[in-house]
Amino acid sequence: MVQYQPADIDRAFVALADATRRDVLERLSTGSATISELAAPYGMSLTGMKKHIQVLEDASLITTEKVGRARLCHLVPYAFEGISVWLARLDRFAQVVERTKGTR
Amino acid sequence: MVQYQPADIDRAFVALADATRRDVLERLSTGSATISELAAPYGMSLTGMKKHIQVLEDASLITTEKVGRARLCHLVPYAFEGISVWLARLDRFAQVVERTKGTR
Question: What residues in A contact B87, CB-CB < 8 Å?
Answer without folding.
Answer: 80, 83-84, 87
